[in-house]
Fold Sister chromatid cohesion protein DCC1.
Amino acid sequence: MPVGSNLPLKSIILRYPPCTIEEPEESYQLLELPPEIIKAVEASKGEEKENIFPLTIKGKPSDDAVLCTPNSTFQLRTVGISNSILVCRSPSSSSTKEGRKDTLQIRDTCHEILECVAISPNLERIRTILKDSAWKGINSSTNNNLGKRKRADKEKKVKKWTKDQLSSVIQCSEEELEKGLKERNVIEVNGKMLLLPSKELKELLSIVLSLLTIHSLDPTKSNTALSQPILEALQDDHEVDPSITTEVLTLFGELVKEDEKEEEMWKADVKRIIREIGKGLLVGVKDKKLDEFEDEWRNEVGEEWGDEIDIRLLEGEYLLTPKPLTTSTTFSSSSSLISHFPISSLPLQPSERFSDLFITRPKWRPEEIIPFLKGLTRDGDVKSRDKLVQKFVRVVKEKDGSMWWFPRRSS
């Protein structure tokens, strides 16, 4: 592989460079790019600097390095090759007497290459990093002065991260990072990233949903209201900083202003708000009657939105188990027990993830376990997910036609 040289049509002469103190030995690492990256890089040739397709290698010293494009993440894996690859370049005029154009110097011999393997990024590191500096809730500023001083002293010692700092340690593309921040309810306040924990966020969103109903502009479009009355009510009655409320409204909807004279309106994503309220109520729940939990959830969102309650909105956050039968009860969905079982608590490595799942339950129905496989492969990559299932799962079909997944025993 010549470096900075065009090969002649007929033949070339290969030479090793002279061993001199002035010219140290060179070492190269070859990277094999997949077709999708090569295509994107070639398409960006000749474009303006800001439009060049970027490739970034990320990782802490303790991490396995990954290669990130604007929208994908690839693990870098060393692969040995049977045929050595020579890295060559034209010799300098001072190092060869012939000065022939068909002579190349061997600068390095490579016996391995770096291979790119598409992976799902470890976005849970976002929550781990921001956990200590997370938002304390709507009542965090109403404690006594002594409590405020203690809390202020403690917060000074906690590192607060900017988006750029977070991006430097989260091994993912910019597009995946944006999605990961939104899914974990992370907002940017005064230049710092702020995690909104489910339990504290639930209290805020319950109030926001009530204010949305009160200030709705049109009964036929009850998900739209003026933003200013909501911001003022949360600041005056609950001491929530408008900078936080504005980001929350943006996270769970869209702030729009048709022209400069019009007041700003908020178009709420009601389904997502209801889901997050349900997640907050679910925190810490263990073996609670499903119908009781749904009633509590319905009361929390209010009569206006009660019909939107659907346990399927919380997939990947809970487990359902049948309530023990008695002589006076029969099994139904209303007699199920619900427990908090968040996917965020499961390992990222496939072998460990499946092990934990089968420790929790010795067998699973496919539709129950699949939500807990998210994050093991890239979103939408069903083929890769099915390969993992084939590796770690034994499928059994019962006489009644039902399918069950059991752990595959290693030989």
Observations:
- The first strand starts at residue 2 and ends at 3.
